[in-house]
Amino acid sequence: MPVEVVIDYKPRDPFLALHNRKTRFLACVAHRRAGKTVACVHELNKQAMTSTGARYAYIAPHYVQAKDVAWDYLKQAAAPIPGVQFNESELKVTYPTGSTVRLYGADNYDRLRGLALWGVVLDEYGDMDPRAWSEVIRPALADHAGWAIFIGTPKGDNHFREICDRAQHSDDWAFLKLKASETGLLNQDELNAARLDMTEEQYAQEFECDFSVGVPGAYYAKLIQDAEDEGRIGNVPHDPSLPVYTAWDLGIGDSTAIWFAQVAGREIRLIDFYEASGVGLDHYVHKLTEGKRQAYKYAKHWLPHDVQAKELGTGRSREEVLRQLGLKIEVVPQLSVDDGITASRMILPRCFINRPLCEHGLKALKNYRAEWDEKRRS
Q1: What is the pLDDT of residues 345-373, one digit of tens each?
Q2: In terms of residue numbers, what domain contains 197?
Q3: Sheet holding 92-94, edge to edge
Q4: What pLDDT, in 10s, does the model give residues 48-85?
Q5: Residue that is last in its domain, among 171, 192, 208
Q6: Are 98 and 32 part of one and the same domain?
Q7: Measured by CB atoms within 10 angstroms of the end CB, which terminus of the chain is less buried, N or C?
Q8: Any alpha helices (H) in 198-298, and if so which ranges?
Q9: Are 188 and 242 in the same domain?
Q10: Per-position b or e across 171-201, b if 16+ CB within 10 A of its CB
Q11: CATH number at residue 280
């Protein structure tokens, strides 16, 4: 005999669109203290109550966050259901229907590999490794055409913004943007007080859902925004009459990036960008003359000083390898990180950037930042 269960939850008006969505995927960017985690936990609870033998997941950037932020909310939501079982060690709720909701951390997303999921919430997706979604979570939804909700607050121009942009232009997605100035969820006196304690940029990011604000500590975000405002980022095509210079950032075990530039008077035109990882130097040399780059007339290739270091396995330096591959190399003098940042800050105001081919590089510049030093408190 069916049992009526009353859950003590009344959705806030801005989140009705989340609960009533008709699409498979939803991206929700919301201001701080809007209640997005509570809304998503109750959505998971509703889905598990009304399905049989289904598996749902809530994922935070870190497992400890999942426990601290969502576990109590989930237990409170599920507690009125007769026969529900809580597993504290696994952060899992098992429902009388046989369905489960379990909490995970994206810091160990491989733990989800091989699972089948009927639905998932990714909380503060911008703080996660994007490979968690593309390599593990998205495939886990395939068997049962599972749904996904991405929620968070902006942290610069990153993969969460990409998801939000996609949600606004795809039929299978819904998009929800909740700004504090529009939701009415926070008292205006509290918002006014917050403005006094925050910079204009911080307030715009945390309460007005502004993705254009650089992440805290970002060195170049303001300079990139200046370039946007001054119209220096857009269509900056290759000029066949000018030579092309490349500047390399060689990675070991991470990505290697190449900027392609032309100089016209005081203007530095960044016309192209390429980045890859896990490939040999011959790959990058091949990319220099692939496709439209066949028309580039190279003058010089600037590489960092560590290109001269000899590798233990071969006894050869990467400089030697690149020269043998036919590149005309100029090794840049060694600079401290601070001096390199200062030099870049002096150059960027002279740069015109070709957005169509440099979009990925622009995002990298916007998000290049200092790590917080707990001892120095800076």
Answers
A1: 899 999 999 999 998 888 888 777 655 34
A2: 13-208
A3: 85-87, 92-94, 100-105, 55-60, 119-123, 147-152, 25-30, 173-178
A4: 999 999 999 999 999 999 999 999 999 999 999 999 99
A5: 208
A6: yes
A7: N
A8: 200-208, 221-229, 281-287
A9: no
A10: eebbbbbbbbeebebbeeeeeeebeeeeeeb
A11: 3.30.420.280
